[in-house]
Design a protein that fits this description.
336 residues; alpha+beta; Beta-Lactamase; 3 domains; 13 helices; disordered N terminus
């Protein structure tokens, strides 16, 4: 009976290792496997009987010699300074030919007086694929996306680089970008106050328009939207900026065109109005014959037709020249 508690403990330990949801392998010196749990079988496709007592599984999991040598060299480098490694990420090839990304952690143990290594492998393939997909979506979005940790930039996508002229290497891990984008201290303080006023009421802001100065010195109008996101226990901010410079220029040009059109039409319309008033006065005083009145009215009709044609041509010129005119304005100008 004296050995029963130890036997029970060993049984519990074996069951725990075998039923763990992570890959667990216990290794003797030179990498010979003495334990290989169910998760290791499921992840790699190699059974307990195929690997225990052998070292061949490592060549099977890393069939490419160059890659296997690079992993071995990395492990040797780590073990030269400590007797374990943490979160070492490698790609294995399963028995079926699939690639899986494994996050390895090891620890030296003594088992029955013999030195052994327990290796724990977490299959992070799906997580990495999800991360890559998310990063791909962010990176290929056509809007500026920045993720901030207390103002420090931790994500800066390709559109952010294109719009601002500042690369990832320029901004990641720094807060300087905001001084660069808003070099005028007075304007920067104005924007900061505006943001703070908004954030005292909400934890985000929408369509906040500011003017940035790019690395090349060009001014661009950006419409900003922000949201807070949770990353573990930390709260981070995601800032999304749309470059609306061309749209704003198009709107300003449209207003300018419409103002010019109104000024050009004002004179001819006033002439027609005055002429019609004169005709009405002459008719009332009996000083205008019907034939003369018809001639005058025909003349005003021609003037009105010419004005209408000018308006049509003006509308067409505006819509053709300014492709970014807001849809509502375009429909109005095209008479839809």
């Amino acid at each position: 009976m004296t050995g029963q508690p130890n036997d029970n403990a060993a049984c519990i330990e074996a069951n725990f290792l075998d039923n763990a949801l992570v890959m667990i392998a216990v290794l003797e010196k030179e990498g010979k496997i003495v334990s290989w749990n169910h998760a290791a079988e499921a992840i790699t496709g190699y059974s307990y009987d195929e690997v225990v007592g052998k070292t061949t599984v490592w060549k099977q999991l890393y069939p490419d010699k160059d890659y296997r040598d690079s992993v071995t060299a990395k492990i040797a480098s780590i073990l030269s300074t400590k007797n374990y490694f943490e979160n070492l990420e490698t790609i294995i090839r399963t028995r079926s030919g699939d690639s899986r990304i494994i996050l390895w952690n090891t620890k030296k143990i003594t088992n029955m007086g013999l030195p052994r290594t327990i290796s724990v492998g977490l299959d992070v393939t799906e997580q990495r694929r999800a991360d890559q997909f998310r990063e791909s979506v962010i990176d290929n979005a056509n809007i500026l996306i920045a993720v901030l940790d207390k103002g420090k930039v931790i994500v800066w996508n390709k559109a952010a680089e294109t719009i601002t002229g500042y690369s990832r290497d320029d901004v990641i891990g720094k807060r300087d970008i905001w001084k660069w984008l808003y070099p005028d201290a007075e304007y920067r303080n104005t924007v900061t106050r505006q943001i703070m006023d908004i954030l005292t009421k909400n934890l985000f802001f929408e369509n906040l328009e500011t003017t940035i100065v790019t690395k090349s010195g060009e001014k661009k109008i950006i419409a900003w939207n922000t949201r807070q996101i949770a990353n573990g226990k930390a709260q981070q901010d995601i800032a999304i900026g749309r470059d609306i410079t061309e749209r704003k220029r198009a709107e300003e040009a449209l207003l300018s065109y419409m103002t010019e059109m109104a000024m050009r039409l004002k004179g001819p319309i006033e002439i027609i109005r005055n002429n019609l008033q004169d005709v009405a006065a002459l008719v009332r005083n009996g000083k205008l014959e019907l034939d003369d009145m018809a001639i005058v009215l025909d003349s005003q009709v021609r003037n009105a037709n010419q004005i209408a044609q000018n308006v049509i041509e003006f509308q067409r010129a505006v819509t053709e020249k300014n492709k970014d005119i807001p849809e509502a304005y375009r429909k109005f100008l095209e008479g839809e």
